[in-house]
Amino acid sequence: MADQIYCTRENRRALKALHIKLVAKPLGRPSAQAVKDHVRPGARNPIEGKFGQGKVKYGLDNIRARLRTTSESWIASIALVLNLVALTSHVFLRLVERFLFHILLTSLLVLRKKFTAYRLGSGPNFILSY
Known about the structure:
By secondary structure, the protein is mainly alpha-helical. About 60% of the residues lie in helices and about 0% in strands. It has helices spanning about 10-15, 30-35, 45-60, 70-120.
């Protein structure tokens, strides 16, 4: 998934020489395979958003390592942190969802028990209160 500005014939040849698969709109008439591999423009938004989050919040654009391996380690660490943050928020939402469901269920059972107890009362002292 590349921006169109990078999809020149020269860049395409260079990527092909490096055995890098380019997922972009092909030049000329689209083949059946190209139509099948088509990526909607909106499919890139989450990816671009994660890169933006990595740059703004986690300093992905401020890596000043001297060695290539150190830079790659920094990038991998930032990607790991981004994945952990996403996982943590997903797990947290599930826990909150279960907690709220438990509270709702408990409240309904308590209200049912109260309503049943008041309904079983008889005579003039029967009062339904909330």
